[in-house]
Amino acid sequence: MKKALIAMSGGVDSSVSAHLMKKEGYECVGCTMRLYENNIIGEDMLSTCCSLKDTQDARSVCERLDMPYHIFHFENLFQKEVIEHFVCSYENGLTPNPCIECNRRFKFDHLFDKMEQFDCDYIVTGHYARIEKDENTQRYVLKKAVDLSKDQSYVLYTMTQNQLAHTIFPLGGYKKTEVREIALENNFVNAKKHESQDICFVPDGDYVGFMERYRNKKYKEGLFKDTKGNVLGKHKGYVHYTIGQRKGLGIALGHPAFVVDIDPKENVVVIGSNEDLFKTTLEATNINLISVENLYEPRHIKAKIRYGMTEQPATVEQIDEDRIRVVFDEPQRAITRGQAVVLYDGDVVVGGGVIC
Protein backbone atom coordinates (compact mmCIF):
# COMPACT_ATOMS: atom_id res chain seq x y z
CA MET A 1 0.00 0.00 0.00
CA LYS A 2 1.30 3.45 -0.96
CA LYS A 3 1.76 5.91 1.90
CA ALA A 4 1.06 9.65 1.77
CA LEU A 5 1.93 12.55 4.06
CA ILE A 6 -1.00 14.98 3.99
CA ALA A 7 -0.27 18.66 4.70
CA MET A 8 -3.25 19.71 6.86
CA SER A 9 -3.83 23.44 7.21
CA GLY A 10 -7.10 23.04 9.08
CA GLY A 11 -8.99 24.25 6.03
CA VAL A 12 -11.54 22.52 3.86
CA ASP A 13 -9.21 21.91 0.88
CA SER A 14 -6.57 19.89 2.72
CA SER A 15 -9.27 18.01 4.63
CA VAL A 16 -11.02 16.90 1.44
CA SER A 17 -7.64 16.02 -0.07
CA ALA A 18 -7.02 13.67 2.86
CA HIS A 19 -10.48 12.14 2.41
CA LEU A 20 -9.89 11.54 -1.31
CA MET A 21 -6.52 9.91 -0.67
CA LYS A 22 -8.04 7.58 1.93
CA LYS A 23 -10.80 6.74 -0.54
CA GLU A 24 -8.15 5.81 -3.13
CA GLY A 25 -6.68 3.33 -0.67
CA TYR A 26 -3.57 5.19 0.46
CA GLU A 27 -2.18 4.85 3.97
CA CYS A 28 -2.30 8.46 5.16
CA VAL A 29 -0.47 10.47 7.80
CA GLY A 30 -1.71 13.98 8.58
CA CYS A 31 0.56 16.85 9.61
CA THR A 32 0.44 20.57 10.30
CA MET A 33 3.42 22.88 9.98
CA ARG A 34 3.73 25.46 12.75
CA LEU A 35 5.40 28.40 11.09
CA TYR A 36 5.38 31.28 13.59
CA GLU A 37 4.40 32.35 17.09
CA ASN A 38 1.98 35.07 18.21
CA ASN A 39 4.73 37.57 18.98
CA ILE A 40 5.90 37.55 15.34
CA ILE A 41 2.62 38.78 13.90
CA GLY A 42 1.64 40.91 16.88
CA GLU A 43 -1.95 39.79 17.29
CA ASP A 44 -4.24 36.92 18.21
CA MET A 45 -3.49 33.99 15.93
CA LEU A 46 -7.11 32.85 15.89
CA SER A 47 -7.53 34.85 12.67
CA THR A 48 -4.65 33.26 10.77
CA CYS A 49 -3.89 29.96 9.07
CA CYS A 50 -1.51 28.81 11.83
CA SER A 51 -3.96 29.34 14.65
CA LEU A 52 -4.78 26.96 17.50
CA LYS A 53 -8.28 26.59 15.99
CA ASP A 54 -6.79 25.47 12.68
CA THR A 55 -4.65 22.88 14.44
CA GLN A 56 -7.71 21.61 16.32
CA ASP A 57 -9.69 21.41 13.07
CA ALA A 58 -6.89 19.49 11.32
CA ARG A 59 -6.65 17.07 14.25
CA SER A 60 -10.44 16.61 14.25
CA VAL A 61 -10.49 15.67 10.56
CA CYS A 62 -7.58 13.25 11.03
CA GLU A 63 -9.42 11.57 13.90
CA ARG A 64 -12.55 11.31 11.77
CA LEU A 65 -10.53 9.71 8.97
CA ASP A 66 -8.61 7.45 11.39
CA MET A 67 -5.26 9.02 10.43
CA PRO A 68 -2.27 9.61 12.72
CA TYR A 69 -1.56 13.33 13.14
CA HIS A 70 1.68 15.22 13.77
CA ILE A 71 2.69 18.86 14.29
CA PHE A 72 6.04 19.93 12.85
CA HIS A 73 7.68 22.97 14.42
CA PHE A 74 9.31 25.08 11.72
CA GLU A 75 9.02 28.48 13.45
CA ASN A 76 12.75 29.31 13.42
CA LEU A 77 13.24 28.15 9.84
CA PHE A 78 10.19 30.07 8.65
CA GLN A 79 11.43 33.26 10.26
CA LYS A 80 14.85 32.83 8.67
CA GLU A 81 13.79 31.67 5.21
CA VAL A 82 10.43 33.34 4.51
CA ILE A 83 9.88 36.29 6.86
CA GLU A 84 13.45 37.57 6.59
CA HIS A 85 13.32 37.19 2.80
CA PHE A 86 10.01 39.10 2.74
CA VAL A 87 11.34 42.02 4.83
CA CYS A 88 14.69 42.18 3.02
CA SER A 89 12.92 42.23 -0.35
CA TYR A 90 10.87 45.30 0.56
CA GLU A 91 13.96 46.95 2.04
CA ASN A 92 15.70 46.42 -1.31
CA GLY A 93 12.88 48.04 -3.28
CA LEU A 94 11.31 44.75 -4.39
CA THR A 95 7.75 43.44 -4.02
CA PRO A 96 7.96 39.80 -2.90
CA ASN A 97 5.46 36.96 -3.09
CA PRO A 98 5.92 35.07 0.20
CA CYS A 99 3.47 32.32 -0.79
CA ILE A 100 5.84 31.21 -3.56
CA GLU A 101 8.77 31.23 -1.16
CA CYS A 102 6.77 29.26 1.44
CA ASN A 103 5.78 26.63 -1.12
CA ARG A 104 9.34 26.31 -2.37
CA ARG A 105 11.07 26.06 0.99
CA PHE A 106 8.49 24.41 3.21
CA LYS A 107 5.78 22.43 1.45
CA PHE A 108 8.15 20.99 -1.13
CA ASP A 109 11.51 21.09 0.64
CA HIS A 110 11.35 20.74 4.44
CA LEU A 111 8.10 18.77 4.25
CA PHE A 112 9.75 16.59 1.59
CA ASP A 113 12.37 15.64 4.21
CA LYS A 114 9.57 14.71 6.62
CA MET A 115 7.96 12.59 3.89
CA GLU A 116 11.15 10.54 3.66
CA GLN A 117 11.51 10.30 7.46
CA PHE A 118 8.00 8.84 7.70
CA ASP A 119 8.69 6.42 4.81
CA CYS A 120 5.94 8.00 2.73
CA ASP A 121 5.79 7.82 -1.05
CA TYR A 122 4.00 11.13 -1.63
CA ILE A 123 3.30 14.57 -0.24
CA VAL A 124 -0.33 15.63 -0.62
CA THR A 125 -1.60 19.21 -0.39
CA GLY A 126 -4.88 20.99 -1.07
CA HIS A 127 -3.51 23.09 -3.94
CA TYR A 128 -5.66 23.53 -7.03
CA ALA A 129 -3.33 22.32 -9.78
CA ARG A 130 -2.59 19.09 -11.67
CA ILE A 131 0.53 16.97 -12.14
CA GLU A 132 0.93 14.65 -15.12
CA LYS A 133 3.78 12.82 -16.81
CA ASP A 134 4.49 13.65 -20.46
CA GLU A 135 5.18 10.28 -22.07
CA ASN A 136 6.94 11.94 -25.01
CA THR A 137 9.50 13.85 -22.96
CA GLN A 138 9.36 11.64 -19.84
CA ARG A 139 9.12 14.83 -17.79
CA TYR A 140 6.56 15.58 -15.12
CA VAL A 141 4.45 18.61 -15.99
CA LEU A 142 2.50 21.02 -13.81
CA LYS A 143 -0.86 22.04 -15.23
CA LYS A 144 -3.61 24.48 -14.33
CA ALA A 145 -6.52 23.28 -12.24
CA VAL A 146 -9.85 22.44 -13.85
CA ASP A 147 -11.40 25.22 -11.73
CA LEU A 148 -9.56 28.18 -13.25
CA SER A 149 -11.02 30.54 -10.66
CA LYS A 150 -9.03 28.64 -8.00
CA ASP A 151 -5.95 27.71 -10.05
CA GLN A 152 -2.72 27.94 -8.02
CA SER A 153 -0.20 26.79 -10.60
CA TYR A 154 1.40 30.28 -10.57
CA VAL A 155 2.66 29.86 -6.99
CA LEU A 156 3.96 26.34 -7.67
CA TYR A 157 6.31 27.06 -10.58
CA THR A 158 9.42 26.38 -8.43
CA MET A 159 8.68 22.64 -8.15
CA THR A 160 11.41 20.30 -9.37
CA GLN A 161 11.00 17.07 -11.32
CA ASN A 162 11.68 14.99 -8.20
CA GLN A 163 9.14 16.97 -6.17
CA LEU A 164 6.49 16.66 -8.88
CA ALA A 165 7.11 12.89 -9.05
CA HIS A 166 6.36 12.56 -5.33
CA THR A 167 3.48 15.05 -4.97
CA ILE A 168 -0.27 14.59 -5.46
CA PHE A 169 -2.82 17.40 -5.79
CA PRO A 170 -6.16 15.57 -5.38
CA LEU A 171 -8.24 18.72 -5.98
CA GLY A 172 -6.82 19.58 -9.41
CA GLY A 173 -9.77 18.04 -11.19
CA TYR A 174 -12.46 19.42 -8.87
CA LYS A 175 -14.45 22.63 -8.68
CA LYS A 176 -14.39 24.44 -5.35
CA THR A 177 -18.15 23.98 -4.99
CA GLU A 178 -17.67 20.20 -5.33
CA VAL A 179 -14.98 20.25 -2.63
CA ARG A 180 -17.37 22.05 -0.25
CA GLU A 181 -20.06 19.46 -0.98
CA ILE A 182 -17.69 16.58 -0.17
CA ALA A 183 -16.75 18.26 3.14
CA LEU A 184 -20.40 18.74 4.05
CA GLU A 185 -21.30 15.14 3.12
CA ASN A 186 -18.56 13.93 5.47
CA ASN A 187 -19.53 16.33 8.27
CA PHE A 188 -16.05 17.84 8.48
CA VAL A 189 -15.86 20.45 11.23
CA ASN A 190 -14.43 22.99 8.74
CA ALA A 191 -16.86 22.36 5.86
CA LYS A 192 -18.14 25.96 5.91
CA LYS A 193 -14.90 27.59 7.00
CA HIS A 194 -13.90 30.79 5.22
CA GLU A 195 -10.64 30.91 3.28
CA SER A 196 -7.72 33.10 4.29
CA GLN A 197 -6.87 35.58 1.55
CA ASP A 198 -4.06 37.50 3.26
CA ILE A 199 -0.38 36.84 3.79
CA CYS A 200 -0.54 34.43 6.72
CA PHE A 201 1.88 36.34 8.95
CA VAL A 202 0.39 39.75 8.02
CA PRO A 203 -3.32 38.99 8.58
CA ASP A 204 -4.32 42.66 8.89
CA GLY A 205 -2.67 43.53 5.54
CA ASP A 206 -0.42 46.18 7.14
CA TYR A 207 2.90 44.79 5.95
CA VAL A 208 4.87 47.95 6.85
CA GLY A 209 3.51 47.83 10.41
CA PHE A 210 4.60 44.21 10.56
CA MET A 211 8.08 45.10 9.24
CA GLU A 212 8.50 47.93 11.75
CA ARG A 213 7.60 45.62 14.62
CA TYR A 214 9.84 42.91 13.25
CA ARG A 215 12.83 45.24 12.76
CA ASN A 216 11.95 47.38 15.80
CA LYS A 217 12.44 50.56 13.78
CA LYS A 218 10.61 53.23 11.82
CA TYR A 219 11.43 53.62 8.13
CA LYS A 220 12.74 57.08 7.28
CA GLU A 221 10.93 59.65 5.19
CA GLY A 222 12.34 60.42 1.77
CA LEU A 223 11.59 62.31 -1.43
CA PHE A 224 9.05 61.88 -4.19
CA LYS A 225 10.60 62.80 -7.54
CA ASP A 226 9.25 62.87 -11.06
CA THR A 227 10.85 60.93 -13.91
CA LYS A 228 13.14 63.90 -14.65
CA GLY A 229 14.44 64.09 -11.10
CA ASN A 230 12.40 67.09 -9.92
CA VAL A 231 11.37 66.97 -6.25
CA LEU A 232 7.60 66.69 -5.78
CA GLY A 233 7.35 66.32 -2.02
CA LYS A 234 8.08 63.98 0.87
CA HIS A 235 7.07 60.35 1.29
CA LYS A 236 6.82 58.35 4.52
CA GLY A 237 9.43 55.72 3.61
CA TYR A 238 9.92 53.87 0.31
CA VAL A 239 8.83 50.51 1.76
CA HIS A 240 5.26 51.87 1.90
CA TYR A 241 5.01 51.90 -1.91
CA THR A 242 4.78 49.44 -4.77
CA ILE A 243 5.02 49.87 -8.53
CA GLY A 244 1.71 51.01 -10.02
CA GLN A 245 0.34 52.38 -6.73
CA ARG A 246 -1.94 55.41 -7.00
CA LYS A 247 -3.84 55.59 -3.72
CA GLY A 248 -2.29 56.75 -0.47
CA LEU A 249 0.57 58.77 -1.98
CA GLY A 250 -0.32 61.86 0.01
CA ILE A 251 0.60 64.35 -2.73
CA ALA A 252 -1.66 66.44 -4.94
CA LEU A 253 -0.28 67.19 -8.41
CA GLY A 254 -3.50 68.13 -10.16
CA HIS A 255 -3.39 65.01 -12.32
CA PRO A 256 -3.31 61.23 -11.73
CA ALA A 257 0.04 60.15 -10.27
CA PHE A 258 1.49 56.65 -9.98
CA VAL A 259 4.58 55.04 -8.48
CA VAL A 260 6.74 54.08 -11.46
CA ASP A 261 10.05 53.28 -9.72
CA ILE A 262 11.60 52.86 -6.27
CA ASP A 263 15.22 53.69 -5.44
CA PRO A 264 16.02 52.21 -2.01
CA LYS A 265 19.61 53.49 -1.95
CA GLU A 266 18.52 57.10 -2.31
CA ASN A 267 15.20 56.60 -0.49
CA VAL A 268 13.43 58.06 -3.53
CA VAL A 269 10.01 57.09 -4.90
CA VAL A 270 9.62 58.07 -8.57
CA ILE A 271 6.21 59.37 -9.64
CA GLY A 272 4.95 59.34 -13.20
CA SER A 273 1.90 58.89 -15.39
CA ASN A 274 -0.06 55.71 -16.05
CA GLU A 275 1.63 55.56 -19.47
CA ASP A 276 5.04 55.39 -17.76
CA LEU A 277 4.03 52.07 -16.21
CA PHE A 278 3.76 50.18 -19.49
CA LYS A 279 6.77 48.17 -20.61
CA THR A 280 7.30 45.37 -23.08
CA THR A 281 10.40 43.59 -21.80
CA LEU A 282 11.52 42.02 -18.54
CA GLU A 283 14.31 39.79 -17.34
CA ALA A 284 14.00 37.19 -14.62
CA THR A 285 16.51 35.25 -12.57
CA ASN A 286 16.35 32.26 -10.16
CA ILE A 287 14.58 30.42 -12.97
CA ASN A 288 13.01 26.98 -12.74
CA LEU A 289 11.92 25.15 -15.88
CA ILE A 290 9.43 22.30 -15.66
CA SER A 291 8.13 21.14 -19.04
CA VAL A 292 11.41 21.78 -20.89
CA GLU A 293 15.10 21.45 -20.08
CA ASN A 294 16.01 24.90 -21.41
CA LEU A 295 14.69 27.85 -23.42
CA TYR A 296 17.78 28.82 -25.42
CA GLU A 297 15.65 28.60 -28.56
CA PRO A 298 13.14 31.51 -28.41
CA ARG A 299 9.56 30.36 -27.90
CA HIS A 300 6.31 32.23 -28.35
CA ILE A 301 4.11 31.27 -25.40
CA LYS A 302 2.21 33.17 -22.69
CA ALA A 303 3.39 34.76 -19.44
CA LYS A 304 1.81 36.29 -16.36
CA ILE A 305 3.57 38.76 -14.08
CA ARG A 306 1.30 38.57 -11.03
CA TYR A 307 -1.05 36.05 -9.49
CA GLY A 308 -4.35 37.72 -10.31
CA MET A 309 -3.80 38.49 -14.00
CA THR A 310 -4.46 36.55 -17.18
CA GLU A 311 -1.32 35.37 -18.96
CA GLN A 312 -0.36 37.36 -22.06
CA PRO A 313 1.35 36.37 -25.36
CA ALA A 314 5.12 36.80 -25.25
CA THR A 315 8.40 35.52 -26.64
CA VAL A 316 10.74 34.02 -24.06
CA GLU A 317 14.41 33.22 -24.44
CA GLN A 318 16.97 31.91 -21.97
CA ILE A 319 20.00 34.22 -21.95
CA ASP A 320 22.20 32.31 -19.53
CA GLU A 321 22.02 29.41 -17.08
CA ASP A 322 19.82 31.25 -14.59
CA ARG A 323 18.20 34.08 -16.57
CA ILE A 324 15.43 34.52 -19.10
CA ARG A 325 14.20 37.48 -21.14
CA VAL A 326 10.48 37.88 -21.82
CA VAL A 327 9.24 40.21 -24.57
CA PHE A 328 5.48 40.71 -24.57
CA ASP A 329 3.51 41.22 -27.78
CA GLU A 330 1.79 44.17 -26.10
CA PRO A 331 3.14 46.44 -23.32
CA GLN A 332 2.23 45.26 -19.80
CA ARG A 333 1.35 47.52 -16.89
CA ALA A 334 3.44 47.68 -13.71
CA ILE A 335 6.03 44.96 -14.26
CA THR A 336 7.40 44.73 -10.73
CA ARG A 337 10.81 43.60 -9.50
CA GLY A 338 10.56 40.79 -6.96
CA GLN A 339 7.32 39.36 -8.35
CA ALA A 340 7.32 36.11 -10.33
CA VAL A 341 6.87 35.76 -14.07
CA VAL A 342 5.37 32.37 -14.87
CA LEU A 343 5.32 30.93 -18.38
CA TYR A 344 2.45 28.90 -19.85
CA ASP A 345 1.96 26.79 -22.96
CA GLY A 346 -1.79 26.31 -22.92
CA ASP A 347 -2.56 24.94 -19.46
CA VAL A 348 1.00 23.62 -18.94
CA VAL A 349 3.46 25.56 -16.78
CA VAL A 350 6.70 25.87 -18.75
CA GLY A 351 8.54 27.45 -15.82
CA GLY A 352 9.21 30.83 -14.27
CA GLY A 353 11.56 33.12 -12.41
CA VAL A 354 11.84 36.24 -10.26
CA ILE A 355 11.55 39.54 -12.13
CA CYS A 356 14.78 41.47 -11.74
Overall description:
This protein is an alpha/beta fold. The chain has three domains: 3-185, HUPs (Rossmann fold); 227-272; 277-355, Elongation Factor Tu (Ef-tu), domain 3 (Beta Barrel), CATH 2.40.30. It has eight helices and 17 strands. A hairpin with a 4-residue loop joins strand 8 (222-226) and strand 9 (231-235). The mean pLDDT is 93.
Entry keywords:
356 residues, alpha/beta, Rossmann fold, Elongation Factor Tu (Ef-tu), domain 3, 3 domains, six-stranded antiparallel beta barrel, five-stranded parallel sheet, 8 helices, 30% strand
Outline of the structure:
Helices cover 25% and strands 30% of the residues. The chain has helices spanning 12-23, 38-41, 52-64, 75-91, 98-117, 161-165, 176-185, 207-215; strands at 3-7, 27-34, 69-73, 122-124, 129-134, 139-144, 167-168, 222-226, 231-235, 258-263, 268-272, 278-289, 299-304, 312-320, 323-333, 340-345, 348-355.
What is the SS-derived class? alpha/beta
Largest sheet composition: 6 strands, antiparallel, barrel
SSE pattern: EHEHHEHHEEEHEHHEEEEEEEEEE
- Form type: globular
Q: Remind me, CATH topology of the largest domain?
A: Rossmann fold
Number of domains: 3
CATH architecture of the largest domain: 3-Layer(aba) Sandwich
Distance between the termini: 46 Å
Number of helices: 8
Question: Topology of this structure?
Answer:
Blueprint: E1 3-7, H1 12-23, E2 27-34, H2 38-41, H3 52-64, E3 69-73, H4 75-91, H5 98-117, E4 122-124, E5 129-134, E6 139-144, H6 161-165, E7 167-168, H7 176-185, H8 207-215, E8 222-226, E9 231-235, E10 258-263, E11 268-272, E12 278-289, E13 299-304, E14 312-320, E15 323-333, E16 340-345, E17 348-355
Parallel strand pairs: 1-2, 1-4, 2-3, 4-7, 8-11
Antiparallel strand pairs: 5-6, 6-17, 8-9, 10-11, 12-15, 12-17, 13-14, 13-16, 14-15, 16-17
Helix pairs in contact: 1-7, 4-5
